[in-house]
């Protein structure tokens, strides 16, 4: 359980705690993290923590929700100006990979949630899929994509982004010794991914089957 601040100063303090918790959970893991370490990272007193959060579990859930909110916003904003669904996928995936490069804790924290807070894990993936489903439904009705089970396709698209982001962004970043280096998915691999997606989603030409 967490408490909503009543003042602008309280809002800023709470945000500092969430940012600090993201750093601590991402670097140490849930079990080695502590409220003391989070407050030290945030530069606030221990008593201040309990003004906003009931305990470590509560702030962990808030971190998951905050990361989810930000990554969905980044993807939505990037895709907003796209002229069709394929272009929206391209822009959305680029935004997702950029976000994960800048916030590698996203992967680490979401994987911890499987054991620490299964409800937060389910919330994270479900909210992303729900946004996908709405966009795919609109694209299907507009004829931008073929007839398909949009729920299945939404989960599949999320899986593509998750695994390729882990392979090319997270693992490359962890292996890179250059300070401040930003890991990116190689352009050739990004384009191969997009060709796969486009061929699977493209409208079927009149008189042809889905596999042609």
UniProtKB/TrEMBL annotation:
DNA-binding region (UniProt annotation): 34-53
Domain HTH tetR-type per the UniProt entry, residue ranges: 11-71
Domain of life: Bacteria
Example GO molecular function: transcription cis-regulatory region binding
One Pfam match: TetR_N
PANTHER family xrefs: HTH-TYPE TRANSCRIPTIONAL REGULATOR BETI, HTH-TYPE TRANSCRIPTIONAL REGULATOR RUTR
Protein name in UniProt: TetR/AcrR family transcriptional regulator
């Amino acid at each position: 359980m967490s408490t909503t601040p009543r003042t602008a100063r309280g809002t800023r303090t709470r945000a500092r705690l969430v940012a600090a918790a993201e750093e601590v959970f991402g670097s140490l893991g849930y079990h080695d993290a502590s409220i003391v370490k989070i407050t030290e990272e945030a530069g606030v007193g221990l008593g201040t923590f309990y003004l906003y959060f009931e305990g470590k579990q509560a702030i962990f859930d808030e971190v998951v929700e905050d990361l989810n909110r930000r990554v969905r916003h980044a993807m939505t904003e990037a895709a907003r100006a796209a002229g069709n669904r394929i272009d929206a996928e391209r822009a959305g995936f680029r935004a997702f990979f950029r976000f994960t490069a800048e916030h590698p804790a996203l992967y680490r924290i979401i994987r911890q949630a499987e054991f620490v807070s299964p409800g937060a894990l389910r919330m994270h993936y479900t909210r992303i899929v729900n946004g996908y489903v709405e966009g795919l439904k609109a694209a299907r009705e507009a004829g931008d994509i073929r007839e398909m089970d949009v729920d299945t396709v939404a989960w599949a698209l999320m899986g593509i982004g998750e695994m390729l982001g882990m392979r090319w962004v997270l693992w490359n970043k962890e292996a890179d010794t250059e300070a401040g280096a930003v890991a990116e998915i190689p352009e050739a691999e990004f384009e191969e991914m997009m060709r796969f997606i486009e061929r699977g989603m493209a409208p079927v030409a009149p008189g042809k089957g889905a596999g042609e």
